[in-house]
Sequence to fold (403 residues):
Amino acid sequence: MTRHLATSSLIALLVGLAPTLAAAEEKTAWRLFVSDHAESVVTVIDALSGDPIETFPVKGPASLKRSDSGRSVFAIQGAAGTVTAFSSGISFDDHGDHGDIEVSAPKPSGFEVSGKKPSHFVEHGGDIALFFDGEGVVRITDEKTVLQGNSAVREVRTDAPHHGVAVAYGEHVLVSEPNREKPDELPVGIRVVDRSGSRVGDVHACPDLHGEASSGNLLAFACATGLLVVSKGEDGPAIEHLPYADALPEGKATTLAGGRGLQYFLGNYGPDKVVLIDPTAAEDAFRLVELPTRRVHFAVDPVRPKFAYVFTEDGQLHQLDVVAGAITKSVKLTEPYSMDGHWSDPRPRVAVAGNSVVVTDPLKGVLHTVDAASFEKAGEIAVDGKPFNIVAVGGSGESHATE
Fold:
């Protein structure tokens, strides 16, 4: 009798668990956050279906940045002097042999910080540094704080307002050094400060500093003379100068993207070239890639580490094999977008959402999707207004929803 009751209890327990166990299935979710070139809105789109999810008002036209985890997206509204954060609604939990995915509605996180001319956003090691050009001040927070809706920040001040950048690097902050004689010009170096704001060591020279990225365990700043490459030292950041090779033509990188999966940096180099940079190479650290016309925008592929993508003013998207250092495929997507005119004119931007490469077409009001495997045009997503800046968040994981 006792054995019968125990067996019945076990069966009842397993039956009760069955719906939960059955609900553990593989799920993929990708979302596109798109800002408008003229209107103060951010639109969220389901990248898999093309359906709109939500449109959020902001205080000014925004550039968009995502966190490394993809759990948060930041709208940097330079003209409005505001940085706003959103919860993407997609998060992952690492369980070693697999990862769980949770999907919910995107929403404002409640984080908002104001100041004069916010510009560069940099996340490093979970810390987020927001540089405000009009004050020469960096405001630092972390993603956990942001998603709690807490707008508390700590500040590091430089000697003058300037178009700068900062990186929170463990117990230190790397912050741009303004040109003291001409603060309106680009910074001249990187200063390292500790938690108290006191300078550590000498200023590291980096004339015309503009452009920053991380790849693997390395951080890089672009200078007129080459790159400052930052790695973890015994007592803090170790900074070395990587000069441009003598064989390179005259020019410099002013925008950097960091490789994912492969350690490299991709930068612009003049209007119609890009440069692949391997900071660990004993020789040939810089490889130039000629483009058919002038470059508009580029992005690395976080899913397929071998590839990056470059959009050029003739309306073509190019697949760049970063190992071979060559363009391998091209697809025509838009009408020409000339690089003549103002630097801030509406022009296409590129993002990667899983198996799709997505390109904004602000003058047509659409997003073009390209199949990353075949590199053929896959479709279009209509978006009101002039869709401009874009970031993608998402991925695949195991879902334990018990619907």
